[in-house]
Amino acid sequence: MTAALDLVDRAPLPADVLGEVRAARTAADAAEVRILELALEWAYAHPAAPGAAHPGAAHPLTGTSAYVEPVGRLDEDDVVAGGWFDLPQVAWDAPAAFAAASGTTTAAGARLIRDVLQLAHRLPRTWAATRAGRVPAWRARRVADAVAGQPGDVAAYVDEHVHESAGTVGARTLARMVDEAMLRLHAEDRELEQLAELDRRHATLHVETLNHTGLVEMSLRGDYVDLAALDATLDEVADALADPRLADLVGLAGCATAERKGVRRSLAVGVLADPAAAEALLAAARSGEADARSSARPGKRAVVHLYLSEAGFLGLDPVARLGGAAGGSGLPVLVEQVRDWLARRDTHVTVRPVMDAASTCSSDRYEIPDRLRQQVLALHTTCIFPWCDTAAEACDLDHLDPWRDDGSGGATASDNLAPLCRHHHRLKTLAGWRVRRLCAGTYLWTDPHGRTYLRLPVGTFTLDPESSAAGRLRPRD
Length: 477
What we know:
alpha+beta; 4 domains; five-stranded antiparallel beta sheet; 16 strands; about 15% strand; endonuclease activity; hydrolase; HNH_nuc
């Protein structure tokens, strides 16, 4: 009883816990503001070279631009296009070292530098409130992002109307405020800007969301009329799949009819992937004359890159991996799930020759043959630069030890090739970043300022100067 009373006596009061939480949050907010200040100092310390040619995207209304990235995109969000105009020009290679030291991707570091330049140069009232502690850094960056790429008078309008409430204003309110400013100040140009939005239409399969269930996500952005028509067709196919005779036409008898409509709509996407099967299904549904005979040959095709361990070949490992082999870097999926895919009657599956990802393939030419390319992509799922998560398929395959025509350089071989996205490829080639391959999937990077990073299949580690002598690594993702 005495021990229990002692524990009660020593337990902190709820008010004390909440007070410490508030103090910790205040300290964290102050630290985030300090990071913004340091990012501003870094930008000022790394201006673009005088007279440098900057083929970056110009603002559609003013024709002016500022620039960070010379070729290609930093990531799918493209932090460059339209967002840097009317700001001080920053050296194209400046964000990488700052981002690496912060434990973030280059694109995230570039966006942070862009946001603080927006605050300091185009949102001075909001920036002053942020430095005074009245606006959290993340909310200030939300305002900066809202005006990125907008004319200067629009930024000034938003700054005037939001700086006192920036600590509480929401994203929708900001969007409406920018729209109002554009309508008031640039009514005719607003229509042109809305037309530019058409370039943002996309249909993207998010392979990184694949998990052991075999399910994956896809996102669409398009004209309302087109997507509304697609939505109606999905409804029609889903309703048809509720009839077991119609479901059998597309090889889904027994697996679609019992599902709720939302699930059948998902299955309907797969039916539409085979236009001939979809046409037959809809024709039968509309005529009311269901033909119970199954399609003789599927028109839908899928390519799956599957990697099995030695135990998997013997049936002793229930898990396979999609799109990666080194260090377990691929997406895990149950072998039983793969068997289900192979057994589907509505999809044609092609089995390619087995490739040993552990062997070394090579070529005596600079050009990379397809089999060698596939092996390198099997060993890596992303760009090998610290913290970069750009898909390997979207990257250049870089000769780590450069190729030379006289034969004195590095070989075109799987142990000398690795994926680098275009931006990080240029950093390695032109900006003083150095990389050394330690073993399959493991790379040691050194930035131009002497800081080092260890990139493994599982993530990136910072080699802190004060701790590396003791052999300690500090993970940052």
